[in-house]
């Protein structure tokens, strides 16, 4: 029942513009608009899409020893970030299990957020859990403030996203380096812009005062139309296929509390030269004989693999090998793919497997990740 | 929303049309609209036989898989192989190019049990309430 669900500040706009809704993490969110998820996916890859991601959690961490606090709590080398810089990181339990994957910005004093501090962006599904974990692990003098309802979040992604955003902020978006941020003014509204995203395309994630978000959203779309830039709103279905192709994990699928970052192939996001929550445990677990590894499978026999589909060894053996955690038709890769956990010793590229789809075994093969190389990474 | 008046309908949104001594079946415009982008269609083997109401295949959209059911009993004579490379035909032309199967009906009297367009249209309107 949609009355019990949370709604972002843009919900009325979505309703007025043909969105179809779904429940996601307790929020009534657009799963698609009139275009449909495949066309929305292609729009982002070819031009530009707008995402209302205000359902995600946004915390501000402040305090004298907040760098050390975050460095201890998160896998990435947070304390080394300079002002304006950001990083992807995982937050883990003592046993190495992933509590959440997050994005952290070291921000100076801004109009949007106030005094300097750290902006921690978390998954909507984990907002309460993360707030509780961070608050209970905070030393005296450290504050963790949930600003999710005061500050809205909009992503602008695609090969023309920077061009479009630049029209609204006098070219300030294009001059922000990847994984850095800057506060700018978009159509008279203060906005923190982070040069990052979850699609494998260039673009920004914008943080604006919730009360101003609808105006900014509409202004971006109007500007696109006037400039002849093909742009449109993108729902959660396309958001999923867009993140899947460049190999980005989605919490609840590739990442859960029973998986470690190493299981998920996220060693690159872990700095083992510093102690952090779960670091010792995850290294021990990685050595275990029944350690698992996340692989991407391409369906050789056509079928749509889905979360929960069992994975079996190929050949007459037919032993149970693992499980699908995400599966779909990937529009840009133009094929049927799955992310699955299989034994770490049988995770090499070209390893054949069978995936059970609707009670029938369909052959699949491990492929090199990602199946779509982010356009901002050089060849 | 399109409603083809040359076909009859099931409550599960399949349509069926007479084609000489065969029958053609697909899913309605209402069905493809609710499903969204069709990304894969699983069709039966030629020669397979089904009873009215049996699931003969699956239409997969981005987010969900939907069984499709036989509007009448019959033996599969042809399947729409175009859907292999172009499942979107189901969305683009649900009553035309997006047809799913052709079959030889084994109990032709079952035709009279199906809804005509006006009744089906009314049924979909009731579903929306």
Summarize the topology.
The complex is a heterodimer of chains A (379) and B (129).
Chain A: H1 11-16, E1 20-24, E2 27-32, H2 37-46, E3 48-52, E4 57-62, H3 66-73, E5 86-92, E6 98-107, E7 117-122, H4 127-137, E8 143-146, E9 151-157, H5 161-168, E10 181-186, E11 189-194, E12 203-209, H6 210-227, E13 231-233, H7 236-244, H8 279-287, E14 292-299, E15 310-313, E16 320-330, E17 335-343, E18 352-357, E19 360-367
Parallel strand pairs in A: 3-13
Antiparallel strand pairs in A: 1-2, 3-9, 4-7, 4-8, 5-6, 6-7, 9-12, 10-11, 11-12, 14-17, 14-19, 15-16, 15-18, 16-17, 18-19
Helix pairs in contact in A: 2-7, 5-6
Chain B: E1 8-9, E2 14-19, E3 22-27, H1 29-35, E4 38-42, E5 49-50, E6 55-61, E7 65-69, E8 74-79, H2 82-85, H3 89-92, E9 101-105, H4 117-128
Antiparallel strand pairs in B: 1-2, 2-3, 3-9, 4-6, 5-8, 6-7, 8-9
CATH third-level topology of chain B: OB fold (Dihydrolipoamide Acetyltransferase, E2P)
Shape designation of chain A: globular
Strand content of chain B: 25-35%
**Count of helical stretches of chain A:** 8
* Global Rg of chain B: 13 Å
Q: Which blocks of ≥5 consecutive residues of chain A have pLDDT under 50?
A: none
How many domain modules of chain A?
A: 3
The major β-sheet of chain A equals: 6 strands, mixed
End-to-end CA span of chain A:
47 Å
Strand order of the largest sheet of chain B: 1-2-3-9-8-5
The computed structural class of chain B is: alpha+beta
The CATH class assignment of the largest domain in chain A is Alpha Beta
Oligomeric state of the chains in view:
heterodimer
